[in-house]
Design a protein that fits this description.
Oligomer: single chain
Shape: globular
CATH class of the largest domain: Alpha Beta
Distance between the termini: 22 Å
Largest sheet: 10 strands, mixed
Number of domains: 2
Helix content: 40-55%
CATH superfamily of the largest domain: Isopropylmalate Dehydrogenase
CATH architecture of the largest domain: 3-Layer(aba) Sandwich
Strand content: 15-25%
Bound molecules: nicotinamide-adenine-dinucleotide, 3-isopropylmalic acid, manganese (II) ion
């Protein structure tokens, strides 16, 4: 029996999750042994109970669930984002979900905002280090100024880059490291050193390093030249939203936060929970409650999760159903259509039997 922890979270999180959980019901009708539990954690829960994510809940998820399906966190009533930090960032960090894989394979030509570029010309995957860098959340504000530190450990960098090399090798795609070693001599100097070492281990992978700023320009001008892009936590976050735009916007992009077997830290702590699947978008307070959120990204997270769990045929079937509906014109407002979130979810699932 596989067990899924569902955390719908804040804003449009519960709205898009309501269209995703029927996929779990569907997979069960196909004979898969799956059960799930919905967790209330998010801004409402925090504001009423004072609890973000208790240790007890964290351990329960870590040791008794196989994966997490996540909506979004972020709420204007919690302006310092404390609960987002203590729920989402903590889960990524303490579950050792070092690799944040964010694929970008646009489905329709008309979703691609780049002039004259066909969807089939673009297949990129961001491999974002997910547990440190500027997200170490160490720093302070004083009356004279403020500091934010970035931490880069050889273990985490090696873990992420090895996963990126492996993926590039599997897909036969080039690998590009996005860095700013020209300025961040220590942190990104370490990234360069580890990258060069792995280049020797993966001679079959066409790999190169680029300054992240120049890379962004090249990405827009010639996206077909890129395959896997490896980056630290902050740069990877920025690139992933640009790539969301390539796919048709924030409503479509999906992501997987994964633990990897070659992580030395993971070897000593064989947690049951090895993946957290979340759309790239946030809680979108500007459209919350309006029934217009696009559930495609959230539903594509279920595809990534099924694949991670080894349910390849089911993942393919859901993906095919989603693609077919989009090809036939199913669209929420962000995609230029008129469907509500519920109608869109139904359309995207219509090909499942
Ligand atoms: P956002 O992704 O929530 O929204 C950016 C824009 O994209 C908004 O105009 C929004 O309406 C639109 N959008 C997002 N998802 C959409 C969808 N499914 N369908 C249609 N339109 C969609 O980013 P933001 O506004 O910068 O952040 C809002 C909150 O979400 C913040 O608190 C932020 O910290 C949080 N956030 C959380 C996550 C996460 O939980 N993984 C990710 C990003 C941002
Ligand atoms: C994302 C989000 C998060 C991040 C926020 C909500 C902490 O933007 O998942 O991309 O910066 O990682
Ligand atoms: Mn982001």
């Amino acid at each position: 029996m596989l067990r899924i922890a569902i955390i719908p979270g804040d804003g449009i999180g519960p709205e898009v999750m309501a269209e995703t959980t029927p996929l779990l019901e569907w997979v069960r009708t196909r004979g898969r042994q799956i059960e799930w539990e919905i967790f209330p954690h998010g801004a409402d829960h925090f504001l009423t109970t004072g609890e973000t994510l208790s240790n007890e809940t964290f351990i329960c998820i870590r040791d008794t669930f196989d994966a997490i399906l996540f909506g979004a966190v972020g709420d204007p009533r919690v302006p310092d984002g404390r609960h987002a930090e203590e729920i989402l960032l903590r889960l990524r960090k303490d579950l050792l979900l070092r690799v944040n894989q964010r694929p970008c394979a646009p489905i329709l030509d008309r979703h691609v905002p780049l002039k004259g570029v066909a969807a089939a010309k673009i297949h990129i995957e961001v491999f974002r280090e997910n547990t440190e860098g500027l997200y170490c959340l160490k720093g302070e504000s004083t009356q004279h100024g403020a500091t934010d530190f970035a931490i880069h450990t050889e273990a985490a960098v090696h873990c992420l880059l090895k996963a990126a090399f492996q993926r590039a090798e599997t897909l036969g795609m080039p690998l590009t490291l996005a860095h700013k070693a020209n300025v961040l001599k220590h942190g990104h100097g370490l990234w360069m050193r580890v990258f060069r070492g792995l280049q020797l281990e993966f001679p079959a992978v066409r790999s190169s390093a680029m300054h992240a700023d120049a890379l962004l320009c090249a990405l827009v001008e010639r996206p077909w030249d890129f395959g896997v892009i490896a980056a630290d936590n902050f740069i990877g976050d920025l690139i992933s939203d640009l790539l969301a735009a390539f796919q048709g916007g924030m409503g479509i992009a999906a992501s997987a936060n994964l633990a990897v077997k070659h992580d030395p830290a993971f070897a000593g702590h064989p947690f049951r929970c090895t993946g957290l699947f979340e759309p790239v978008h946030g809680s979108a307070p500007d459209i919350t409650g309006k029934g217009v959120a696009n559930p495609t990204g959230a539903m594509l997270c279920a595809v990534l999760m099924f694949r991670h769990l080894g349910w390849i045929k089911e993942a393919q079937d859901v993906e095919t159903s989603i693609k077919k509906a989009l090809q036939e014109g199913a669209a929420t407002r962000d995609l230029g259509g008129v469907l509500t979130t519920t109608e869109m979810g139904r359309a995207l699932r219509a090909g499942l039997h």
